[in-house]
Amino acid sequence: MTMQIADSVSLPSPDARARAHAAAARDSLRTEPRAVRMTIIALAIVFLSVFVVLPLVVVFAQAFSKGILAYLSALADPEALAAIRLTLLVAAISVGLNLVFGLVAAWAIAKFEFSGKTFLITLIDLPFSVSPVISGLVFVLLFGAQGYFGSWLRDHDIQILFAVPGIALATTFVTFPFVARALIPLMQEQGTQEEEAAISLGASGLQTFFRVTLPNIKWGVLYGVLLCNARAMGEFGAVSVVSGHIRGETNTMPLLVEILYNEYQFVAAFAIASLLAMLALITLIAKTVLERHLDEGHDASDH
Amino acid sequence: MTIEVRNLVKQFGSFKALDGVDLKVDNGELLALLGPSGSGKTTLLRIIAGLDWPDSGEVFFNGEDALAQGARERNVGFVFQHYALFRHMTVFENVAFGLRVQPRASRKDEATIRARVKELLDLVQLDWLADRYPSQLSGGQRQRIALARALAIEPRILLLDEPFGALDAKVRKELRRWLRSLHHEINVTSIFVTHDQEEALEVANRVVVMDKGRIEQIGSPDDVYESPATAFVHGFIGESIELPVQVEGDVIRLGDRPLNLAADGLAPGASKLFVRRHDMLVGPPGSGAFEGAVQHVRNFGPVQRAEVALSGGETIEIDAPRDRELRAGDTIGLEPRRYRIFAG
């Protein structure tokens, strides 16, 4: 009764009342004592600092430990330049291939019903569940001198292992799931109705793909490409097995970092490592931006 | 454009979506396919549009074999329940899409396309939304844009799949009336799918009632309401009381109680008696075919809805006018003004 009177006297707007209720509900949910909350937050901060921020700081500190000139000359070293070039080339090849494969696989899985679909989805995840070293060894088994295609390749004078094709193949295999994984849930959620609408309006298959399907998934494609690229440039295990570590020829940036470190050339090792760390930072920022766009895409599909 | 469908069969796994459907649609008709979910109505619509293919059977447009053509060539306008607007295009570009993807030879020039889109947006009374994106529109607006987009290609047939299914009740009622007047204006042969009987009866000039992949009845809205052809139609359309009865010679029994109803021409055996709720007339105890005790009464505007336990053991709901107040505990007699009995 008193409540009713109070309400009718002060007449708060329903909006204000709703907000007050919500705030009260939030407070009542936060039942932990202040000390517990602070401890948990502090733990999280310490953990993040030690395992994420500290390594990053160390990389840059080591890279610049002998000054900026030493840093720049380490990067200008022909071996370092060759590794950077090779890494960019391999990343371009594997991202390009996986963009096409990923699009096709996601399209087939999301827009069509066929038997063996679950198996195909599992297969796409295979590179994630196999250790990269094993992936590399598979290629050695296939294309190595004693491998299945080894003698045929030697007869035709084709070099795959210990050369760019092998490194590109291993990287492509390891990074295959990224684009497909980014697209499958997105395309499944979007369904096939827009495509059906386009076709019933007279669009051809290609027109439908380029005017309807692709624009709807463009942010998802970029997201997949970004992650695929980051992994392709950073891949160590699979590449290490197939590369042969020929200096100035088949060393990618991660491989070179290890070699330089083992030779006690810390500045050079961390200088290359700092480039990879910067790639990671740029990837993170781009990922955040893309995720915002992806969320907008989801909102737009609301009914 | 006339549509003729002959003996269509379509199976999804072990589920028979269409089980031998024959249908003729006349030029300029506005036909409703009405049925519960899983009755095959949407499958039938999608096969006519070319978005699905039957296992067997034939489809003809004006006597031509339509199954020889894909969805792209059929020139059919299709409106989806969830609109399926292209989310990355403006309203204007959505409506223009069908004109822009024409083969180069038959494609109109930009000025003609613009004029046509403007005209269509005027037709659906949404020209002021041309630059918006679908996500910025209400459900009712989206569905009208979807309709304008489908009409842009000057379709020979317009197919609408639960066009108002995703809208709230008030908007749905407005759009129903609007669709009927629009059809009157453009007069293109149209089929729409609905599970809402009120919608079908209000909008269509002919109603096809479907159940379990078969057509139960085809007729005018009055026909299917006033003279349902099967037990399913009677139960599905309008609010019906369904009672299991036994026909023995010229006596109809509900449980042990013989009902004072004519049994002429009825096959003996277990049957179902259907009465509309408002066709049960209330009288004093002892009058009428049924007798029962009132359990609950609720008032709905002009009628009172009473739950009555019949002395045969069944409990039914009736709608009675409010000129004579019913109270829980009353014993009343009930006489069906009109009723139908179906075997089985």
Write the layout of secondary structure elements.
The complex is a heterodimer of chains A (303) and B (344).
Chain A lengths: L1 H9 L3 H16 L4 H30 L3 H10 L1 H34 L5 H13 L2 H12 L6 H6 L8 H12 L1 H14 L2 H8 L4 H30 L2 H7 L9 H10 L3 H35 L3
Helix pairs in contact in A: 3-15, 4-15, 5-9, 5-10, 5-12, 7-9, 7-13, 9-12, 9-13, 10-12, 11-12, 12-15, 14-15
Chain B lengths: L2 E10 L2 E11 L4 E5 L6 H9 L6 E6 L2 E2 L5 H4 L1 E4 L11 H10 L9 H14 L15 H14 L4 E5 L7 H18 L2 E6 L2 H7 L2 E6 L2 E6 L1 H6 L4 H6 L3 E9 L2 E4 L2 E3 L9 E8 L3 E4 L6 E11 L2 E8 L4 E7 L9 E6 L3 E4 L1
Parallel strand pairs in B: 3-8, 3-9, 6-7, 7-8
Antiparallel strand pairs in B: 1-2, 1-4, 4-5, 9-10, 11-12, 11-14, 12-13, 14-20, 15-19, 16-17, 16-19, 17-18
Helix pairs in contact in B: 3-4, 3-5, 4-5
Encode the helix/strand succession of chain B as letters: EEEHEEHEHHHEHEHEEHHEEEEEEEEEE
* Chain pair sharing the greatest interface: A-B, 22 and 33 residues
Unreliable parts of chain B = none
* General shape of chain B: elongated
Helix coverage percent of residues of chain A? over 70%
Can you put this structure into words, describing what you see?
The complex is a heterodimer of chains A (303) and B (344). Chain A is mostly helical and 303 residues long. Chain A has helices spanning 2-10, 14-29, 34-63, 67-76, 78-111, 117-129, 132-143, 150-155, 164-175, 177-190, 193-200, 205-234, 237-243, 253-262, 266-300. Chain B is an alpha+beta fold and 344 residues long. In chain B, 26% of the residues lie in helices and 36% in strands. Chain B is built from 9 helices and 20 strands. Chain B has helices at residues 41-49, 71-74, 91-100, 110-123, 139-152, 169-186, 197-203, 221-226, 231-236; strands spanning 3-12, 15-25, 30-34, 56-61, 64-65, 76-79, 157-161, 189-194, 206-211, 214-219, 240-248, 251-254, 257-259, 269-276, 280-283, 290-300, 303-310, 315-321, 331-336, 340-343. In chain B, strands 6-7-8-3-9-10 form a 6-stranded mixed sheet, with helices on both faces. In chain B, a hairpin with a 2-residue loop joins strand 12 and strand 13. At the A-B interface, helix 11, helix 12 and helix 15 of A face helix 2, strand 6 and helix 5 of B.
